Every structure is written in C-alpha cells, then in structure tokens.
Request: fold
Amino acid sequence: MTINLAHNRPDAESLNAFENDLNNIREETISKVGQADARYIRKIIRIQRSGEVFGRLSLVLGFFHPLFWVAGIALLALSKILDNMEIGHNIMHGQYDWMNDPHINSRKFDWDIWGDGESWKRYHNHEHHTYTNIIGKDRDYGYGLLRLSDDIAWRPKNRFQFITYTLLSSFFQFGIAYHEVAGERIFAGKQKETSSLPISREALKQSFFSKIKKQVFKEYLFFPLLAALISWPMFFAVLAGNMIAEFIRNWWTASVIFCGHFTEDAQTFDEKECENETRGEWYYRQILGSSNFKGSRIFHILTGHLSCQVEHHLFPDVPAYHYVEMADKVEAVCKKYNIPYNTGSFGQQYWTVVKRVIKYSFPTKEEQQLATNS
Amino acid sequence: MNALAQQGWIWFSQALTQHSSFSGYFQPLIQLIAPQWSTDAYRAQVIEIRDELADMFTLVLKPKTGLIDQQWPSFKAGQFIELMVEKEGSRTLRCFSISSSPAHYKKTGLIELSIRIQRQGRITPWIREQMRVGSLVNISVAQGDFILPTPLVEKYLFIAGGSGITPFRSMLQQQLLSEETEQRDIHLLYYSRNNQHIAFQQELEQLQNNCPNITVTFINGEQEGFICEQHVQNYCPDYHQRTSFICGPSPMIQQARKVLSDLKVDNSKINFEFFGAAPIEMKSTGQAIVHFQASEKIVVSEENKTETLLEQAEAQGLTPVSGCRIGVCHQCICKKKSGIVFNTRTQQYSDTGSEEIQLCISVAQGDVVLDL
Reply:
C-alpha cells in the first residue's frame, strides 16, 4: 500500500540533519576514490574478459568431454553476470567517468545483453532513479506486468502472475530491452499525446532491433557456426550452452533486482507527495523504496553491489565497491532518525518477493466483494 | 567499398564484443603483458629526466616499438604531442611541444619534451616528482601546424618567450643536424624573465657559433621589458623581409602580434602558437544560461566572467570525459541540443541547432542546452 509519506516522515529539522549526515558520508567516500578503484574495475574487467574467452573455448572442448561443456556454461554465465552487473551497470551509471578512460566511461560503454545501453541509460538513470517506486511514474515498478501493490487495480490476468514472473525472469534480457524503449508505446501504438521522450519512436525501434540483431548473431549464429566447423552437432551444443548461460544470467539479474525494490517492506509512493521534494525528502523516499541483502564480498560483486540497493539509490554515481562500507554508516544514520532500513539475507528477502508476487495475485477483499456483487 | 567493409568490420566487432574495435575489448587483457597499452595512444618510456632550470625540466622519451606497439609516426619540427599520465587512477592529458628535432629522432629514436613546472599546476609538478627513468607514459601522434613551410622561404624571425623556446629549439636543431644543403636564415629573439631563466642558453650560443645563418639575441625581460617596436627594429633591422613565428605565454603573443602589425608586417607572414587554450577574444557576452539536460542542472553564467562549458559542468559536479582542455583531443565532445556557443579556438560562433561541440573550448552565448 502506498504510504502517506508526509505522515510518517521525520520533521523538517531532522530531515535536514539527516540530509547533511548522508551528504557527509558521500563526501567522505568520494575523497577516497582513486587509484585503487581504477585498479579494481580493471581487474574485474580482466576476470570477465578471461571468463568469456575461456568459457567459449571450453564450450567447444565439450566435443572431447561433456564436463568441459558444463564448465564453459559456468564461465560464460559468470562473465555475463559480471559484465551486466558490476561492470556495465556501474560504468553506465557514470561511476568510473572520472578515470577518463576511453573504454571505461558511461558515454561509450555497452553491455553484453539484449538491452541497448543508450536506451537503458536514458530511461533507467533518469526515470527509475528519480521516480523510484512512485506508482505511475516508475515504470520499473512491476515492469507493467506484475501487480505488486494495492495501488494497482486487480485484473484477472494477475491470477497467473506467478507464471508471468517466472517467464519474465527467464527471458529477463528481452523484458529489459523491450521495457527500456517503452515497447508497449512504440510498438502497440499506445502513444502518449505529450511525449516527453527526447528521441523519436523510430530511433527507439532502430536501437532496439539493432542491438538484438547483434546479440542474436553472436550467441545463436556466429559462435555455434564456428563450433560447427569442428563437427556439425557442435552447433547445437554451443547454441544450447549459450542459451543456458543467458538463462542463468537472466534469473540471477532478475532476482537481484526484484530483491532490491519488491520485497515485502519496500514501499510505494504517490506522485503528488513527491512534488517539490527537498534532497532530504528524496533521500528518505529512496531508502523506503529499496532493500538490501547481506553476503560475502564475492556475492556483493556478483550482484554488482545492488545488494546495497539502498546505497545505490542514495549515491548512484559513487563507485559501487564502496557501498558495503557506506551501508554500515547509512544504517547507523537511519537508526539515529528512526527511519526504517530494510536489510536481511538474500534468502529472506527473496522469500518476501515471492510472497508478494503471490499475495497480489489475488484481489483485495473490497474488490472481491465488488466482483461478486456485480 | 572500402568504407563499407570498414563499417561491416565495426558492426562485427560490436556484435561480438560490444566495443567498436576488438582491441578496445581486449585492452585490459593486453595491459597485463604491456602496461599502459592503449588503443588510442602510443607508449613511450622515460629514458632520462634532465633539469634545465629551477622550474623547467626535459623528459627524454623513447616511443616503444615492437609486436604490440605500433611504430610512432615521426613529426615535423615545431609540432606538439599530448602527454597522458595516470594520476590517482585518472587519465590526464597535457600538450607539450617537442623540443628536439626529427633528425635527432631519426638518429636516436628519442624525443624530448621540455616542460615548465606550473607552480599552481595540478599536473606538471606531479610529473616531475613521479616520473622515473623507465616509467611508461602515453603519447599521441604529433599535431599542430606551427611548422616551417616546405617551399623554402629564406628568412625567418623567431620570437620566443620563456618556455616558448621549445618548438624553436626543435627547428634550430633540425637545421643543424639535417643534411639539407639549403640553410634557412634565422634570427631568434629570445625573451626571458631574467638572466636566471634562460633555457638552453649554452646550446643556443654554440649553435650560433656553428651555424653562420643562425643569430640568437637573448633579451632579459627584467632589464629590457616586454617586446616593443624598438626591440624588433634594433635587434633585427631586416624584420620586414622575414616571416615571423611567435611562441610564448599568451599576453606576450598578443603583444608581439600587435608590435609586428604596427610595424606594417603583413598578417600572412605572422605565425603563432599559444601554450594552453587560446585566450578568449570576445566582445561583452552578457548573461548566458546553460542547461545540462541529462543531469537536470541549470547554470547562469556571471557577467564579465568567461567560463568554458567544461568548467561550468565540472563546477556542477559533473564529470564529462575530458582530455587536453585546449580543444585538441576531441574527447570532451558533447551533443549541443540548441543555442549558440563561441569556439575559443576557431574564434567562431556556432550554429544554433543541434551539433557536436567540444566543451573545453566552448563558451555559451545566451541560452544553451546540452545533452550532458
């Protein structure tokens, strides 16, 4: 249920102090960003690139022993997860722009997934990060497919939304690609009269298809054909391997992202309440609408540090590696001002997501009554 | 056909690596065996660091060649390169004239950069402190058209101010070392702050003794002041027959150009090279409003204070990719959605429509919307 922001919000004075405390955490961290961060991201990129090269080689070696094939899938999935989460997502947020490296900057980078980086930056960095969890404004909320709060009227199709959810997770890369160009608007003709998009529908379609063509060529044609040179059944072995690696990556990214915003206690907001927000109020809303989960450093890296979704939403352009150390400080600040800070283990958080998807499959009591009465 | 094949290749590389070149994708891996290797720069090794003056030093660099490194193309005397160093993880570029000659490079494979340490600078003092013999740096190809014309014009007047001597040292050394039979007649007026600050003094004196066609006049600024008509008339009476080349700090260049103009030297015979960004020669601009659209920031620029768009963006906490900051490297290119900007390098006003501009040399005129 959309909460009444103004009602539960700390008073203006404490919000100001709260804003200051958070700004200080940011300043403190930014002053530490430097050589170590450059070395770190290059190291992760090296692991990802090696993972991809050896993964693809290993898939082909499946010709000699199936274990190679399995290892190849694992390496390729790992490489895609690193590329999408810790590398692509964070670079495209501009977290490493200060390095001035021609290949590690938000202007140039594109990731190994169907969604085109340019379009993603346009909508995600802007819409989702500004209007986080505002029903009607944040299109990421349920991706227009799932009903995850009472603010959206129940419709019969919601009955099957657990299946929709499984399908969305399995084909997450298509979902993202379609979603970021607002596919339902550009393809189905549900065009808004006053389009706020800075780019034409044709240009959006063009970038949507151009990226998918490239990805399909690579994963389903080029590398399988290359393997077919050894023996033709290898075409299918590599094709299947690539698809499984993508499948693993899809489930992983979808789950991480769902745990960031759709856990039981992650709140939603009404558009009107968020007009003329101060920075402090904005910070407050970001914290209420996001949830963290705990884990080891390697686990954090695999989530692209979206395990620290709260910190990511507060400081989207701070190199993500610092979120873990910032999280302790942010949690302490929240405690000081009596602001709920949503965190738990990945398993716990994920369970609440599943519960939420199921819970909102059913209409509310009023809606049920309305349905039976009519 | 060639262009089509190239486009196809870029598509192929993008499809496989999400990078427009394979080398871009593999760069981090290549760097494992070749530190500092970069797709858009050459590697060079520091061979020697030589102090010239209390606040000026020379870096002797050897551009690397080999399997991984492409051969660094040579240069023309008077040209500059971008030197790229990584400071605290951040790549920083500065432009420096090559102070040695192409003939010297041909013979030894070495180039020299003579760098003045800017006391308040962020980079030049750091370079002097951090660089060691053996350190690796990145350099660009040589650029710039501050070069002597190839059909031999016979007589030249060089006017150097302080560290502006560097391109002239290259030209003079070239004359000495190259085996060209035709020798140019060169007169160098070399202004320095005082007699403690004359770089390459011995070398230039020796050069003068060895080459009858070269005359060097050292002018001590402390005693004789800024460049003026009398200096030119007294030290180089045949100035009107000579083609002039001027290099030094911008006020000095402005002054020298004015002096030569007043002496009725034709503008086409005056060449000059600014160190750093060209000074902004603009009439009163009034207020300008810059809208950084993507980051939703609006800046109202103060009257009588000319700031480049890059400076304004950085003051807002934005971090657009930037490089040389003097309009050379084209890294800070950004899409301007609308509005007129003044280009301090070409001294021209832009069109009002949407186009790519270089932030570091653009000054907003009126209202400008940027996709940043």
Notes: Chain A has a mean pLDDT of 89.
